[in-house]
Amino acid sequence: MRRALQAITSNLAASTGQLYRRRLPSVPRTDTLPERLLIHRYFFFSAERSPPITISTINPKVLSCDSAVHGEIVTRAKRLQQILLTKPSDLPFSEVIFCNVDDPQSLGQQPITFFREVLALCDHPELLDKGEVHGLFSLDSITRAKSIMKSIPGRTVGGYSDSKGIRSLRAAIAEGIGIRDGFSGNMEDIFLTDGASSGVHMMMRLMITSDRDGILCPIPHDPLYSASIALQGGALVPYYLNESTGWSLDVNELRLRLEAAFAAGIHVRALVVSNPGNPTGQVLADQNQREIIEFCRDEHLLLLADEVYQENIYTNKKYFTSFRKIARSMGYGEDDFNLVSFHSVSKGYYGECGMRGGYMEVTGLDSRVKQQLYKMASVNLCSNVTGQILMSLVMNPPRVGDGSYAHFTEERDNILSSLDQGSKMCVDAFKKMKGVTCNEVEGGLYLFPSIKLPNAALTAARSNGMEADTFYCRKLLDTTGIVTLPGSGFGQVPGTWHFRMTILPSQQKMAEILSRIADFHMKFMNEYRN
Ligand code: DCS
């Protein structure tokens, strides 16, 4: 015991404040457990003790992971919100408006009645035995909730489920996919997840073994992907969407980037495609999707198809087609093409971000790999069961003839039409602003206008230690209370500047937001005129 303590003391003297880097010296085997505890206590209560975890000792991959969605602008916006509560006269606006994130219900969108009725009944199934329920809930909500509850082992949402999700719900989702695509789905391919994010993380964890493993990702892209790749220590291999042709995806660009990565010793394993795009709002044409599938086949890449915005389409010229449907219609069977498609309850007309429901459909992968995925899912036990139910409802909404159908379609269409008009209002307004260009929003919940910033603004940003678009967004926030996110957090062609804004606010609110942005923009451009 004394020998062990002496060893520690001499180590402490030598370490001069570097203790956190040093491991506790191994304790002689002869020591008993109480003696070991004593040594640990001595170690931790010494004068040079530092916390067990410090910023220098945490996983460096966490440090290298950036989340634009929760960056400095959002932190500042929350601080300004607090100031409004305590000293509103200090600020030139009366409200902080969060246009930075596509969280529909936090921006006032109402939930879809049918979905919430079924969820309420599943959460509290005793209601199903009460007569009053018939006056309060629609008949088909009651019937649906009863049938779901009957199919859940234990008849409760409070139990763990199978790690892939409840069987009957996966079957319902597979059926919904079949109706959507015209090619039947297989419930064994479905993994229910806590939102699409957890599926994305799972796939990155599965594929990335070192910084030599690359994932082709669009620029700009949803920071979920860069963050997830960074957390796993992989390499993000960028490919650029073409802004001048409506954020189109050119397969030649994919090929060039793949070759460059190969030359740099990166083994590219997968291609991420966001359709409709976040933050860029483009919808891919079927022919383009076919080219992407062929490219993945030729280059032995797994296609990660992020299709969370599949119900958010605002153009008559294009429609959403799943990559799965395109692959099937090209003649690829279920096992012939490696595809993982992500969907979520967070977007669409439902916008139930807080419910954390989602699924990934895994097709074409070796059954042994799928088995490993299943094992990974089981490490998390299961995704939340209420989210699983909601995902099954989203894929099987009321159909013609159901009691809720008319009310459901009215709610859905109102939301989608409001988003459509909101997106067009934004594009029109941005196009009128000097130095701003903005592509049409074909789908999704964001627009990503480009701003040509004057040199004086670039210089001012630099002297404030900021990226130019962060400087712009920060000034916009401080002047108007409107929260947007700088394009630099999403990737952009060097030398171009953008910001991301959601189209979610109601039309009335949007008119006010756009007028404030236009006013701010004019003053900003005048102030920094070269
Ligand atoms: N895929 C895309 C394209 C997304 O935009 C998001 C969320 C997700 C997946 C994951 O969402 P869920 O986990 O909720 O299903 N978008 C984030 C964003 O860009 N801002 O806030 C959320």
From TrEMBL:
Cellular component, GO, one term: peroxisome
* UniProt cross-references to Pfam families, sorted A to Z: Aminotran_1_2 (PF00155)
Q: Spell out the SUPFAM superfamilies in the cross-references.
A: PLP-dependent transferases
Please report the stretch or stretches of sequence annotated as the Aminotransferase class I/classII large domain.
152-517
Against Gene3D superfamilies, the record matches this protein to: 1.10.287.1970, Aspartate Aminotransferase, domain 1, Type I PLP-dependent aspartate aminotransferase-like (Major domain)
**Swiss-Prot/TrEMBL catalytic activity:** glycine + 2-oxoglutarate = glyoxylate + L-glutamate; glyoxylate + L-alanine = glycine + pyruvate
Q: Kindly tell me the pathway this chain contributes to.
A: Amino-acid degradation; L-alanine degradation via transaminase pathway; pyruvate from L-alanine: step 1/1; Photosynthesis; C4 acid pathway
How it assembles, according to the record, is: Homodimer.
Per the similarity annotation, which family is this? Belongs to the class-I pyridoxal-phosphate-dependent aminotransferase family. Alanine aminotransferase subfamily.
Q: Protein name, please? A: Aminotransferase class I/classII large domain-containing protein
Recall the taxonomic lineage recorded for the source organism.
Answer: Eukaryota, Viridiplantae, Streptophyta, Embryophyta, Tracheophyta
